[in-house]
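Contributing new records

If you add data, match the layout below exactly. Sequence lines come first and carry their own label; structure lines follow with theirs. Keep one chain per record. Anything else will be rejected by the validation script.
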Amino acid sequence: MKPNPNPVPPQTFRPQPLVLACLAFVLGIALTGIWFHQHHAVSESDGLSVSTKNLLGQLAAPVTIHYYSLLPAGSADATLQAFAGRVAHLLNAMQAASGGKIQLSSFDAPASADAASADGLKPFNLDKGDACFLGLAIASGKNTEAFARLAPEWEPALEFDLARAIQRVTATATATSARPAPEVDKPSPEIIASINRLIPDASAVSVEQASQIFHDEFVRQCGEVGTEVEAQISAAQQQVLQAQNGGDAAALEAARKNLAQVQVAQGEKLKEVAAQLQTRLAVFQRMKSATTNEAK
């Protein structure tokens, strides 16, 4: 059987679809721009792109990766075995670049088949003999993503896809666990104004309804950030391309740095929007509680 020319994409499991899908969308745009125009800038020591090393060196939360390479000799050919080895090398390099934030566990024994299935991997080559598993699961906190089946055709984009998945699970874990305590005790006039704008009559809205309203506003703001990201990434990409075509090494390095700075700035904006979401809900809950106590 020939390798599938269209490998199965990563399967993503998001505990809060509205918020996490939006985060993944915006971060995905930024990382796509970074990777496609910086992947040629490779470290001689480990083969990782400069953008990937920068990302891994600034992870917001610890990450666990389970890598499964269960390839019985009778079911997996030499090409697949060699590819699995290169994936292992890539993962080891990413772990080293993370400065201890990534914990990598590799499994190659047949007894790990049940664990692979539990992590979301799919068996293949069943017609050739024993089942093969080649994939991985990435987790940070309660956020997980599974690459159900890796194939050699995926290799050119694999580093990019792994970097995006790692960024998603860590960024969403940070955003959903943030605690806007200072703003809750003494909310700013801007926060109060935004709540009154979204919910003019707080007494007529439950906390659950308010949560949905604030989430809808978050999604709307994410769309605005996404549009801004696309425009700025596009401009930064053009600068990189112009510098490449001009053959000016200094200009090319400056353009790459600018592209990375755009990605970081947009990520910070997204974190701010996520923090505002939680602050609004926390302040609204406090307002409702105060109203209830006054009524008593």
